[in-house]
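Fig. S4 source data, part A: sequence.
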Amino acid sequence: MSFFDRFKKKKAQEEHNEPQEGLEQDASQPEATPQDEEAPAKAEPTAQAQPPVPEEVEPAPEPREDPAPTREKEAAQAQVEPGPEPQPEAETEADPEPEPAQESKPGLWGRLGRRLKKTKDKIGGSIDRITLGKKIDDEVLDDLEEVLVTADLGVGTSLKLIEQLRGKVARKELDDAEALKQALRKGIAEILLEVPPAPERDNQPHVIMVVGVNGVGKTTSIGKLANYFKNQGRSVLLAAGDTFRAAANEQLTIWSERVGCDIVGGQEGADPSSVAFDAVEAALNRGRDLVLIDTAGRLHTKVNLMEELKKIHRVLGNKLPGAPHEVILVLDATTGQNALQQAKLFNQVVPLTGLVLTKLDGTAKGGVVVAISGEMKLPICFVGLGEGMEDLRPFEAEGFAEAIF
C-alpha cells in the first residue's frame, strides 16, 4: 500500500507548502507512481525534464482520481464480503412459514382455542395468577374454587372438581401450575363425558322441536342446523311455528332459501300446533328425513306460553308416534348461570333431550357448559362459535376442556 502512504505525505505537504510547490510535488510524485507500476527506467527522464511543468500538471489529477476508484473498489469488495449476510432476511421470511401451519390446524377445537379467549383467560389466566411463586396447597385450591365459581361452572360442579384436586395434592401428584391445569382439564372432560349422548337420528322422519327464550338466536340456529344436516346428506323440512313474532316466518323462509330446503308456515297469529302438525304430514308425504320445528320465543316465567309448548309436544305425538324425537333448548352462553335456570324450567315443561349453546366465542362465562352438563345431565349437542353459516358445530367434550386451557 505504498501508493496511499505517498498520497498521504503529499497531502500533508500541500497543507504547509505554497500552491506552486504543491504543484511541483504533485507532478513529481504521480510520475513515479505510474512508472513504478509500468517500468523503473522511465523515472530518469522525469527528473531531467523539469522545465515542462504544464505537461506534468495535467497528470497530477490522475493520481487523485486513481485513489477514488481504488477506494470504491475496496468499498465494493468490503460490501461484497458481507453480501451473504442478507440471510437474516431469508430467516425472517422463513419464520412465518410454520405459523400458517398452526392456523390451518384441522378440526373445530383448534380454532375454538382462539375463539374461547375470554373463557380461557378467565380460567387459565387466573390459575397462573394464583399459583405464581406458590406451592400447590389448600390455600391455592381455595382461590381456585372462587375462580371456577365466577367462571360460571356452578357451585356444585366447582366443589366436585376441587375435592378431586385436594386428593391429588394430598398424594403429592400436583407439583406446579401446569400439573394443576392438566388435572383440572381432565376433571372437566370427565364431567362432560358422564352425560348420556343425544338420541340417534334414525327415524323417518326424525322430528326435532326447538325451544328457547327471546333473543337467544333460536331461529338462526335452526337455519344453521338445517345447513349442517343437509351437508350430512339428509333432506330437511322447516316448520315456521313462531307465529307470534313479526317477520319470523319471513326470516325462516330466507334461511330455507339459503340452505335449499322445504318450509311449511302459517299465517301470523295462527295456532303453532297446527303448523307443526302440517309440517310432519308434509314430511311424510314428501319423504323428508328431518323436520326442524321453530317455536315462539317465550320467557320461561310465563306459564301460559310454556303450556303452549306442552300442546305442540302433544299434537306431534298424536300425528307421529314417538314425535318429537328430540327437544333441543337453545341457550345464550353469555347469560351464565341464568342459562342453567332456563334449562331447569324448560325441562319441567317438556322433556329436554339436548342443548344448543350460542355465542360461546364472545363470553367469559363458557364454564356454564360444565355446569349444565354436571347438574342437568343433558348433552350439549351443538355450540355456536360465530356468525357464519358453518359456525354451528357438534360439541366435543375433550376438545372443549382442552380449548379453555
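Fig. S4 source data, part B ends here. Residues 18-106 have pLDDT under 50 and may be disordered.
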